[in-house]
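Q: Can someone sanity-check these two? First one:
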Amino acid sequence: MNTLQRPSRHYEYVDDGAAIYQASFASIRREAALAGIPAVAERVAVRMVHGTGQVDLVPDLVIHPGLVTAARGALESGAPILTDAHMVASGVTRARLAKDNEVVCLLRDEQVPALAREWGTTRSAAAVSLWEPMLGGSVVAIGNAPTALFHLLEMLLDGAPLPAAIIGCPVGFIGAAESKEALASLAADHGLDIPFLTVRGRRGGSAMTASALNALAQEKE
């Protein structure tokens, strides 16, 4: 028998989960400047704002017009999700994955420390090289390390298999903005037109990246 008791009510607040959810998305649509977002990607932008609490995020989003179709199609076909951070992997709502897709983060793989030392780079970047056998047709989600995104782009330029889509939202003060600009200009600079999503500047992170993944996994809001 349950002996727990709810504490006395001292504050006025909405505590119905469904009502909170609906009101949150309604507030985002009132407050965020969504007009510049491709219509097919509006729910992705809304969920990213919801995951970060930042309505001013929208003008900084850069979303390839083919992103939603490519990423959702890949996930519906069972493609793996490859991510640089365990926090991104933990943020994926598995119930939204149509094929119970594998979510892969190899940061703790035993090969990573030695590779990082040998190459003089971060462990996050070294772990990306271990994705290569799974990379073709995958959905990549980088939400932490700029070095991981730079390393991925260099692999692709060297001829690695192309993922179906890239969510590139690393966060930070050193290299984050630059790595995301490199992703956004990949087609123009190098002719590799891979559907992608990114956010300009220093902002990013696991919550933002996982929010985008969850929106891409299923159309239902």
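And here is the second, same format, sequence then tokens:
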Amino acid sequence: MSALASKLRIFSLICIFSLFHNSCNKENNDVIPDVLVDFYIDLNDPEFFELNAIGNHVLINSSTNNMGIKAAGYDDNGIIVYRSQVDEFIALDRTCPYDYVLDGSSIAVNVDGIYAECPVCNSTYALPSFGTPISGPSKYPLKMYRTSFTGRFVHVTNY
């Protein structure tokens, strides 16, 4: 194989990898504007007792008993914290991305079990699949925040 053919093959592989990486990048679907999110919740606090079982969730807002300064999410709609596995938590903004993209509306989704539904556009999002839309007009997932777990405390942040 010639040096030129080898370089073309490497270049092609880099381009293909880049294309797949960018198409899978969650940031491309992140339509809700960034706001500072940084708080901890203590699983020993009775307010968060539900999170001790897999498949449960709690709703966090500015008046929730958490440790941190910013827990309200975009436009104070709140944040859903869902326990998906033994040591894994998913934190999602409650703002419906479809309504926001459509006309800038800030509509909080309602949560029932493992689903969140927008009361305006009727899009339904699955919490176990990171807020992916499963019905309705939305093609965007709910905005996700980073989480870490230390065995007692769940840290939710976006930095």
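A (reply): Looked at the second one. The chain is about 20% helix and 30% strand. The first strand starts at residue 38 and ends at 42.
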